[in-house]
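Cross-check.
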Amino acid sequence: MAPPAARPRGGGLSWYRNLDRNWELSGAFGGLRVHQPSLFMIGDADPLYATARPAIDAIGELLPGLRRSILVPGCGHWIGEERPDEVNAALVEFVAGLPA
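Predicted model, tokenized:
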């Protein structure tokens, strides 16, 4: 393991710093559908909600395995931290509904 001074910095921010290249690398996956069972949750106070609304409304086209889509009122971007009980309850219900 590299000494602390030599470790890369930035963590999750590196995704955004490299956004153009990440977009190019994911181009091969454009139009693919996720058939596995899925759950989608977003807060209505998430700044991305208004911007991404057309994609969210059409999410069933890309996720034919979508079991449930949940809009959490008064919740922002960090839904798991802002509403952990609601997120956990939704995840437990989702997993319980999967075939064994």
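Residues 15 and 22 are 7 Å apart (CA to CA). Residues 84-96 form the longest helix (13 residues). Passed to J.P. for a second look.
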